[in-house]
Amino acid sequence: MKDLINALEKTKIKFLIGFTEKFKSSGDLNESSIEDLETLLLSSDVGVSASQRIISDLRKKIRKGALISQDLLNIELKKIMTEILESVEVPLYTNNKSPNVILIIGANGAGKTTTCGKLAKLFKTMGKSVMLASGDTFRAAATDQLGFWGKKIGVPVVSQGLGADSASVIYDAFTSAKSREIDILIADTAGRLQNKMGLMEELKKITRVLSKIDNSAPHEVLLVIDAGVGQNAIDQVKVFNEMIGVSGLVLTKLDGSAKGGVIFGLAHNFKIPIRFIGLGEKEDQLQVFNAKQFVEGIFS
Length: 300
Ligand SMILES: Nc1nc2c(ncn2[C@@H]2O[C@H](COP(=O)(O)OP(=O)(O)OP(=O)(O)O)[C@@H](O)[C@H]2O)c(=O)[nH]1
Ligand SMILES: [Mg+2]
Fold this sequence. Notes:
8-stranded mixed beta sheet
């Protein structure tokens, strides 16, 4: 919880501190302070529709014009915001397939490779056997980067040379993981934004090839999103979900970003489970998403 509170510091300053100051000056919850709150939600990257939902839920709960304490208001706000996030608090379930295949996708620099390493660590700690597949054959250092994580965590990494066919690397990893009875195969992919259609075609090919071996694979398509991109996160989810299909989200780099409020927009707009959150660069700085703790983190 301490890690989460620290990571959410900037998001909190932007939202809660601003809100407390504004409320103090107006004293009661009237039309103008409700507008202030809505503006603050918008400037905290919560997004239009999620902000409107929060405000309308709040209006229902508190009789307009009623003088209420800041504490009471915070309690109601926390409840509403927790409800939004709870609708997407669905932990990643791994079945007893051997292997479960988790495909990691996302935009350039979102934190995919780092998340692969952190996830490997998380599953290993749970007693699962893990294999990593380096499906990013586009960037020279990508395989080295994943290899570094594999060594650090102590899990095998399947890779081929630069320019190799990404789908064939992941296909090979799948057959190898199957024969070695590995529990979890985590496949990294490239994230080049400059060639969006090329990337989407490559990702589609990967899912096609995987489903040939096992028609339920990939068992999870995890879209990694950098919280720092703010509202742009909404577009990223839309595009990847339409083109590939996304079963879970990872929101990274919450530490050091003041735009963590975007999580409410993601939850409200898509209802796609948020599986994990990234709170730093280190191997143990990935947490299973917990709605209550997240909101506590902002309000603490
Ligand atoms: N502070 C912080 N940094 C992170 C987090 N996750 C990843 N990073 C950093 O973000 C940078 C990019 O991470 P990568 O994992 O290489 O991102 P990627 O999506 O694989 O990037 P490409 O493969 O180039 O598309 C690295 O410097 C990571 O250490 C996080 O949760 N917090
Ligand atoms: Mg990468």
